[in-house]
Structures are given as structure tokens and as C-alpha cells.
Amino acid sequence: MAEQIIKDLFQQSGYNVFNFGLESLHPTLSKNIKFINNKMSTELRFLPDFVVQNSRQGDLFYLEVKFRADGCFRFDEKYDTYPYKNAWFVIVSPEKIQCMHYKRLIQKYEITPATNYLLTRIKSFNIDPKLLSEYESYSKMLFQSFAQHI
Questions:
Q1: Is-contact 143 92, C-beta < 8 A?
Q2: Domain for residue 149, yes or no?
Q3: Under a CB-based contact definition with an 8 Å cutoff, are residues 119 and 67 in contact?
Q4: How many domains does the chain have?
Q5: For 89, 130, 131, 143, which has the most beta carbons within 10 A of its beta carbon?
Q6: Is 4 helix (H, G, I), strand (E, B) or coil?
Q7: What is the C-alpha to C-alpha distance for residues 79 and 71, in angstroms, rounded to an integer?
Q8: What residues make up the domain containing 18?
Q9: Residue 63: inside a domain, yes or no?
Q10: Which ranges constitute the DSSP H helices of the chain?
Q11: 8 A C-beta contact, residue 85 and residue 102
Q12: Averaged in consecutive runs of 10 residues, what is the pLDDT profile of the chain (150 residues)?
């Protein structure tokens, strides 16, 4: 559901959004390679959820969407070999939607409920603050019960 919220937010902001993640494109393959640990299977498992294209300038971005009930996200050791070094990570929580680039995450920066890495602050994206606020309210409605169980 977090992926759908972000997909719709970017589409409403004038972006072309293409499903790219292995889970959505090839769910059977995703299950078959889950425990295979070689370079190819790792690259496939880590495919970002979306490729997003700015419809005006044509710029392309990888987006990886993560839901976190507690609003926290940081890289752990499994990201040491993450192959998509130019990906943006969008973290959806019941409280807000935040975003950080791979380059900052690999430097041990992290997203928490106290941080404000909002999509509207990313110069590469042109997300209207009112639209982001609207989608954060959808996120609150959908995921509030998750926050109560942490």
C-alpha cells in the first residue's frame, strides 16, 4: 500500500511512474531466488520499486519505497552491496513521508520521526507541499493502526 501511495503522489505531481521492482514484475522469480546469494540474484532482489521520469525534463530516478511503522530507516549490512547507488529511498510511516538518497544513507544518515527529510525539500523532485500533506493524511488513515502496535 505504501508503494501505491507514492506511485500516485508522483503521478499526480506530473511524473511518469514505471513499476520496476522484482516483486511486482515477477513475483514467482522473486520467491525462487529469495535465498540464492550470488551477484545476479542480489541485483534482482534489490531492484528499486519504481523508475520515475520527470515528464517535463525527462530526468529519470530510481525510487525504493519502504513502509516503517516506527518511522525509522537506516542502512544495515545488507545494503553494503546494494547495486543501485543512485536510488532514492522513500520512507512511508503513519506520521509522514520522508526521502533520502543512497549516498546519504550509506554515510550512516538515518530517517527517524524527528527528522524532516521531506519530498518537498528534494530539489530533483517538484512535489507540491499541499499535495504531499494530502498524501501524508492518506498514509495516516491507512497505517495508524500499525503505529499503535509498536
A1: yes
A2: no
A3: no
A4: 1
A5: 89
A6: helix
A7: 19
A8: 2-143
A9: yes
A10: 2-12, 22-25, 27-32, 39-45, 102-105, 129-148
A11: yes
A12: 96 96 83 84 87 93 96 93 94 96 97 96 93 95 71
